[in-house]
């Protein structure tokens, strides 16, 4: 759903007009921009990951999907499945719009206790909780056009039936009332819904997912408030034997580098009220291209995060076809204490490492102004993993370039103590005046040694610094592949270890060229 609603109405007008008249010519396909190990649909528009759940050996990824165009339109729930989090198979659409409205974002749970009564003859129901968005009500100017509804599956997520009693949580008169993230609270013995409600989060509880009671509100005057709060998530994490609760809150605009962003709070939750440890604004990802991310349900002690790799400032304009947008890699979340602060860490899930089995390792690489690593690493491509570690961090940069002078620069600036990604000269920027730029992130670690992991996939780079304390995600669109790799430094800089690995080729039996789908 993630959009500014006035913009969305305008887009819808264009969609309906074009459907009634002659359709615009389809843009030329851009297979060179197709990600290889990030999920993207075979065709058409996608945004928020939805309903992510693990069940009977299968990861289910649902997502906001418009099957009739490459811009935002009437929302459906697309569906993809994976056994390993990195190789996805696109499935038939799971949920279609109906008389109650479009199918906006939400979550899915395994109702193991059959609290809903949907399960029959011992079948365990999967239950999707989502926002019904009524475009007619929105157009009339009402404040009750978003309500929460249910659908259930009795065949492990293959097919879905909408609950006849929808909606189960009616809007009390809040213009933005959406994105239910639901989980079972074992202490309270009830379901807890974390709901985005305009400029705050509202918590509801239920014994059966059908009847909901308001518990509390959080955040009206805390955190970043550049735009509407959206796509929340609430989950427990343990550090040094103590349990804390993490609350993710996406907002647009108001991100740390413009447009969309994901902030978080660490605190305590008693089944009714969330209490933060501090009121500092913290960001799960400082790059411009990670939004609407939430975690998979039913994964035990693992907290696996997946985000939408785009930004509402230009998501409808990025130069890809016949699809638009993709997800981040799956990320394993953790907690780390730095001084008096607790931070959320994010690193590639362990399954991602299997994509890069054969690495070339260089020891004690000394950088004096610039060193071109392309000849030493051989076969440098545009889909790879790069790991760097140093015992004495100083100003330096990694340059991904091509023969046309286009480059993405990823680096660290010691005077400001910030990491950065500069895509100003990385290729196409003409599709949006808000795309080109140099984006920064604070270094949160206090150590002199540092480590960086870069995941590059044709048109994106994800940077995980200092064991995931600082994370940045960034898109770019070169006119030819960035297949040169250089290191630069303002003074002498030594990399103790550098590891480079190209993406392993897919077996011919499963390769389909659809970037993480098959």
TrEMBL record:
Location of the Glycosyl hydrolase family 32 C-terminal domain: 381-499
One Gene Ontology molecular-function label: sucrose alpha-glucosidase activity
Domain Glycosyl hydrolase family 32 N-terminal per the UniProt entry, residue ranges: 38-344
Origin: domain of life: Bacteria
Any one of the GO CC terms: cytoplasm
InterPro entries: ConA-like_dom_sf, Glyco_hydro_32, Glyco_hydro_32_AS, Glyco_hydro_32_C, Glyco_hydro_32_N, Glyco_hydro_beta-prop_sf
Disulfide bond recorded as keyword: no
Gene Ontology biological-process entries: sucrose catabolic process
Membrane-crossing segments per the record: none
Gene3D superfamilies per UniProt: Exo-inulinase, domain 1 (2.60.120.560), Glycosyl hydrolase domain, family 43 (2.115.10.20)
UniProt keywords, alphabetically: Glycosidase, Hydrolase, Signal
Keyword Cytoplasm: no
Family per similarity comment: Belongs to the glycosyl hydrolase 32 family.
Protein name: Glycosyl hydrolase family 32
Organism: Hymenobacter sedentarius
């Amino acid at each position: 759903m993630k959009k500014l609603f006035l913009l969305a109405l305008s887009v819808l007008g264009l969609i309906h007009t074009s459907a009634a008249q002659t359709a615009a010519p389809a843009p030329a396909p851009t297979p060179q921009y197709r990600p290889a190990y990030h999920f993207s649909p075979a065709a058409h528009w996608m945004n928020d990951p939805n309903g992510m759940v693990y069940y009977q050996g299968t990861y289910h990824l649902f997502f906001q999907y418009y099957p009739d165009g490459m811009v935002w339109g009437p929302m459906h729930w697309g569906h993809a499945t994976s056994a390993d989090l990195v190789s996805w198979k696109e499935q038939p659409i799971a949920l279609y719009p109906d008389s109650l409205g479009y199918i906006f974002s939400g979550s899915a749970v395994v109702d193991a206790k059959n609290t809903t009564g949907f399960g029959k003859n011992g079948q365990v129901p999967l239950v999707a909780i989502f926002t019904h968005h009524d475009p007619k009500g929105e157009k009339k100017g009402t404040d009750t056009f978003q309500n929460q509804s249910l659908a259930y599956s009795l065949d492990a997520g293959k097919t879905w039936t909408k609950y006849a009693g929808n909606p189960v949580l009616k809007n009390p008169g809040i213009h933005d009332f959406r994105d239910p993230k639901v989980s079972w609270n074992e202490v309270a013995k009830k379901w807890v819904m974390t709901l985005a409600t305009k400029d705050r989060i509202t918590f509801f509880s239920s014994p059966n997912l059908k009847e909901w009671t308001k518990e509390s509100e959080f955040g009206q005057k805390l955190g970043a408030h550049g735009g509407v709060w959206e796509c929340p998530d609430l989950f427990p994490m343990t550090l040094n034997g103590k349990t804390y609760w993490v609350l993710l809150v996406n907002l647009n605009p108001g991100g740390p580098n413009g447009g969309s962003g994901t902030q978080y709070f660490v605190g305590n939750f008693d089944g009714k009220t969330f209490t933060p440890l501090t009121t500092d604004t913290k960001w799960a990802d400082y790059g411009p291209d990670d939004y609407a991310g939430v975690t998979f349900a039913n994964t035990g002690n693992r907290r696996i995060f997946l985000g939408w790799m785009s930004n509402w400032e230009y998501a409808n304009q990025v130069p890809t076809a016949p699809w638009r947008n993709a997800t981040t890699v799956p990320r394993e979340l953790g907690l780390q204490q730095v001084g008096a602060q607790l931070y959320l860490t994010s690193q590639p899930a362990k399954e991602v490492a299997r994509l890069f089995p054969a690495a070339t390792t260089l020891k004690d690489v000394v950088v004096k102004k610039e060193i071109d690593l392309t000849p030493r690493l051989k076969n440098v491509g545009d889909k790879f993993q790069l790991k760097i570690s140093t015992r004495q961090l100083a100003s330096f940069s990694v340059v991904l370039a091509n023969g046309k002078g286009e480059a993405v620069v990823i680096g660290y600036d010691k005077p400001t103590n910030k990491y950065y990604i500069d895509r100003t000269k990385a290729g196409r920027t003409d599709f949006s005046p808000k795309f080109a730029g140099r984006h920064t992130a604070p270094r949160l670690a206090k150590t002199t040694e540092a480590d960086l992991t870069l995941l590059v996939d044709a048109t994106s780079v994800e940077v995980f610094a200092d064991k995931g304390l600082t994370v940045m995600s960034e898109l770019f669109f070169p006119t030819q592949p960035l297949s040169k790799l250089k290191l630069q430094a303002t003074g002498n800089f030594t990399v103790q270890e550098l590891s480079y690995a190209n993406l392993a080729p897919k077996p011919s039996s499963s390769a389909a060229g659809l970037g993480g789908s098959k």
